[in-house]
Amino acid sequence: MVPEFPLKKDADFQSTNVDHLLYRRGDAAGTRAAWILFELKTEVNSCNDLQIATYKSALDLGMPRLLNALGLIANSPHASPKYSAMPKLGGYPPGAPIELVYLAPCRKNFPDRRMRSVTFRDLEGLELTEYQEVWDIFRTIVLPALRG
């Protein structure tokens, strides 16, 4: 939905950006609706605990407060025009919970159930029915390169 979604820092109008903000719709099978903060790391040394703490704080704040903070960033005197140009997120329930999906070469042990660590190795055995040809190429060429 939104690439490079900004998470406002407490001290000022600066932000830490999460790679993508997504929305997962709930279904009859029991999957609950949720906002997803998605972070992709391609290098082991880029797995940053301070950044993860920022994401955990965002989960605790909830989407209504994150959207309010986005408005503060967008209206600050030195704001980048990209913040006011971000897509409007109307039509999606702001009260839905937020989860983090952290895709990286390294496994992170998150004590918070709202935070999920996925490694490139986890993806190797995944079978997809849609876009199977593309997935096969990705799995055989890209994943091994990301594993190092």
Keywords:
about 150 residues, alpha/beta, five-stranded mixed sheet, 5 strands, globular
Number of domains: 1
Query: How much of the polypeptide forms β-strand, as a percent range?
Result: 15-25%
Please count the beta strands (DSSP E, at least 2 residues each): 5
The value of Rg in angstroms is 17 Å
* Main beta-sheet strand count, sense and barrel state: 5 strands, mixed
Going by helix content, strand content and strand pairing, the class is alpha/beta
- Helix percent reads 25-40%
Give the overall average pLDDT. 87
What gross morphology would you assign?
A: globular
Strand line-up in the sheet with most strands: 1-2-3-4-5
Unreliably modeled segments = none
- Straight-line N-to-C gap: 29 Å
Sequence of secondary-structure elements: EEEHHHEEHH
